[in-house]
Amino acid sequence: MEHAKFDASPLLGGLELLQATYEKQAFSRHTHEGYTVGVIRHGAQRFWRNGSYHVAPTSSIIMVNADQIHDGHSASEGGWAYEAMYPTNAQFQAVTKDLGLASDVPYFPFAVEQDPKLANQLLTLFALLRNNEDTLLTETFTHHLLLTLTCRFNKHPQQPVDIAKIGPQLDVVREYLHQHVTDTVNLDTLSVLSGISPYHLVRQFKARFGLPPHAYQIQQRIRLAQSMLKNGLSLVDCAIASGFHDQSHLHRHFRRAIGVTPKQYQRAISCKLSKPRIDTTAVMSS
């Protein structure tokens, strides 16, 4: 049986959490606004990051940077279970400001870390965040772990020279997609806008941002939908307002990227400032 419990702690403006057991779930390639820091409870997960696949076995730590393309599915018979949090750049910066670090946010160079001490600390933090019974203890532990991650992983990679040369043009395309999230956009428009041929634009855009333009736009629509769901918009209205054809279209893309349905996500988020938590066990149907 597949089970997913999405939650959000009120700390740092809403630190998002996921506790899940999956067997047949296959995440599409997607991004999160925040980082992914998770611990495999049992089984193993295989996922794509940084141009190759990685396997995270039981007790290992999954690490994905903010806005980094990744996917995920089971690497073991019977599926896998894990717990994860999704701290954003702003949440890291709230903890690390005024400390004089080389960078106020981390960069995880490796997709999988084998560190039993850190894994146990993360599991302790996840439990504290879900229960939120001792505010001072939870806040202290949260700050400690986020600062630990930032200090330990504080070196950022350099961009390849060929991508760096046309970086400004690719940034223009990316900004255009941000400004036209819900619009129908064609490749010729993006090509003219950037001065790059359609073929090379798709290749270079994917090399820099991890997804081709059409898939990148879908990810932005999912983020827009998340924002609307947080604000209480109905599922039907949210689907149309975020650029999806209908509710089922939103449901399909949302669950493949986030791991829970839009309805589950909205229920959990709406309770983030209250003590009770919503258990979103559900029939995982597309």
Summarize the structure in short:
The chain is built from eleven helices and ten strands. It is α+β, with helices and mostly antiparallel strands and 286 residues long. A hairpin with a 2-residue loop joins strand 5 and strand 6.
Q: Can you identify the CATH class of the largest domain? A: Mainly Beta
Q: What is the helix content?
A: 40-55%
Q: What is the count of DSSP helices, taking H or I runs of 4+ residues? A: 11
Low-confidence stretches: 273-286
Rg: 19 Å
Report what the structure shows.
This protein is α+β, with helices and mostly antiparallel strands. It has two domains: 155 residues, Sandwich (Jelly Rolls), CATH 2.60.120.10; 109 residues, Homeodomain-like (Arc Repressor Mutant, subunit A), CATH 1.10.10.60. Helices cover 44% and strands 19% of the residues. It has eleven helices and ten strands. The strands form two sheets. A six-stranded antiparallel sheet has the order 1-2-9-4-7-10. A hairpin with a 2-residue loop joins strand 5 and strand 6. Helix 2 runs antiparallel to helix 3 and helix 9 packs across helix 10. It is globular. The two termini are 15 Å apart. The C terminus is likely disordered. This is AraC family transcriptional regulator. One of its GO terms (molecular function) is DNA-binding transcription factor activity. It comes from Enterovibrio norvegicus FF-454. Keywords: DNA-binding, Transcription, Transcription regulation. InterPro entries: AraC-bd, AraC_XylS_family_regulators, Homeodomain-like_sf, HTH-like, HTH_AraC.
